[in-house]
Structure to design on (259 residues):
């Protein structure tokens, strides 16, 4: 039976997927996007999910986010928390200032005005945008817009972050800076992160654990712990070695499809 539970799994699990399957469409046109995916994210763990384009990474994240329902299997979030989401596009309200964008979740949570102001100021300082509260999104660079999106997600005060290629549209230098920021915020707030990317180096830079998903059907085919001490540099030999190992697995997997 399909079910999505929000009860605590155990003290050692923030996100739990058990035998998750997702089929799109019906009959001859049916696509088996995910096939029996089981995965636990521990509290405070940073897990990166990598795989070729179209292998089901976004599907998996959307299921955990509750944006779509699995065809089979179970998904649970400890304590029934609502996860925070971040996508490649920051999806800010263009007519609102930076402050007002970050304030939206606080308003929805019913926080009083004075407290909202304090929280917005603190969140903008956290993402190093303290001076930019009165700007509108179009006045900011792509990297700054993603910082606003991150601040807005943090305003939810949720311990679980789901990120779908959040830095995929940024240049390498901006991405590098945002990796540092995200690592700092993750460790300060002890967040559990499920981070999707097709960039293997980015995964090796950020992850405690890398999970590799195969294509059609999406199955977990490889998983590795990343024991490199933090803070890490994306251009370090240790990160390059892990990235090379994962790339090799990915290449074997793509070769299997004769592509
Ligand atoms: P990724 O994020 O890894 O690139 P997706 O999760 O977006 O992969 O897609 C996985 C597979 O499911 C692809 O074959 C894609 O075409 C298919 N798919 C994704 N979303 C839908 C949908 N809403 N309807 C039908 N097929 C879909
Ligand atoms: Mg995707």
């Amino acid at each position: 039976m399909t079910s999505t539970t929000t009860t605590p799994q155990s003290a050692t699990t923030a996100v739990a997927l058990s035998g998750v399957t997702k089929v799109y469409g019906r009959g001859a046109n049916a696509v088996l996007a995910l096939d029996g995916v089981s995965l636990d994210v521990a509290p405070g763990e940073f897990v990166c999910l990598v795989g070729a384009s179209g292998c089901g990474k976004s599907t998996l994240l959307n299921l955990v986010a509750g944006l779509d329902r699995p065809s089979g299997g179970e998904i649970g979030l400890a304590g029934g928390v609502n996860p925070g989401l971040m996508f490649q596009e920051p999806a800010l309200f263009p007519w609102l200032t930076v402050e007002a964008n970050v304030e939206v979740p606080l308003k929805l949570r019913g926080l009083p005005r004075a407290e909202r102001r304090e929280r917005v100021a603190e969140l903008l300082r956290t993402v190093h945008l303290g001076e930019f509260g009165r700007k509108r999104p179009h006045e900011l660079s792509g990297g700054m817009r993603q910082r606003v999106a991150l601040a807005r997600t943090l305003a939810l005060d949720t311990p679980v972050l789901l990120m779908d290629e959040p830095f995929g549209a940024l240049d390498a230098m901006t991405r590098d800076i945002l990796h540092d920021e995200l690592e700092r915020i993750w460790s300060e707030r002890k967040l559990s992160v499920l981070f999707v990317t097709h960039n293997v180096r980015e995964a090796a830079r950020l992850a405690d654990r890398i999970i590799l998903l195969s294509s059609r059907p999406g199955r977990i085919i490889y998983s590795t712990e990343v024991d490199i001490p933090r803070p890490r540099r994306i251009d370090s030999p240790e990160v390059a070695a892990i990235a090379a190992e994962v790339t090799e697995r990915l290449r074997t997997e793509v070769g299997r499809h004769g592509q």
Remarks:
- The two ends are 35 Å apart (CA to CA).
- Residues 89-157 form one domain.
- The pocket of adenosine-5'-diphosphate (ligand 1) is lined by residues 24-25, 31, 33, 51, 53-59 (CB under 6 Å).
- The longest helix spans residues 237-256.
